Amino acid sequence: QVQLVESGGGSVQSGGSLRLSCVASGYTICAGWFRQRPGKEREGVATIDHYGRTHYVDSVNGRFTISSDNVKNTLYLQMDRLAPEDTATYYCAANRRSLVGGRCDLKSDFDYWGQGTQVTVPS
Predict the structure, then answer these.
(1) Residues 105/24, Cβ–Cβ less than 8 Å
(2) By C-alpha distance, which of 108, 114, 120 is closest to 79?
(3) DSSP strand pairing (117-120 vs 10-11)
């Protein structure tokens, strides 16, 4: 079992930046950030595997950067040029599923989830 704890959410003006962090209690193979906007279903934002390969949803590509520190078991999401439509609860997720014959992207299955951190960008 892996526990995930997010931090770094808050309220920021449109065009501003925030960095989210997610500390895992153990190693992970594939990790990602998801968000749930008001009145919307949860969606994948970005993923990274333990080789550093990344995937992004089109709406954040070029504005958000996912990264990880495998020594510290910490996942990050640098969010730049934030817009009101980025307002959401952001969740960290991870799994330990082998990448041999598998994949780590926005359609992957994640077994561990954090509690979420709120990001608000007022319009």
Answers:
(1) no
(2) 120
(3) parallel
Asked if residues 45 and 57 have their Cβ atoms less than 8 Å apart, the reply is: yes
Long-range contact pairs involving 35-40 (C-beta distance under 8 Å, separation at least 24): 35/86, 35/88, 35/89, 35/90, 35/91, 35/119, 36/88, 36/89, 36/91, 36/116, 37/85, 37/87, 37/88, 38/87, 38/88, 40/88
**Residue 95 and residue 28: Cα distance in Å, rounded?**
6
pLDDT at residue 78, as a whole number: 98
Residue 91: Cβ within 10 Å count: 22
Contact between 22 and 110 under an 8 Å Cβ cutoff? The reply is: no
As a whole number, mean pLDDT of residues 52-74 equals 95
Q: Would you state the pLDDT for residue 14?
A: 97
Which band of pLDDT confidence, cut at 50, 70 and 90, is reported for residue 99?
A: confident
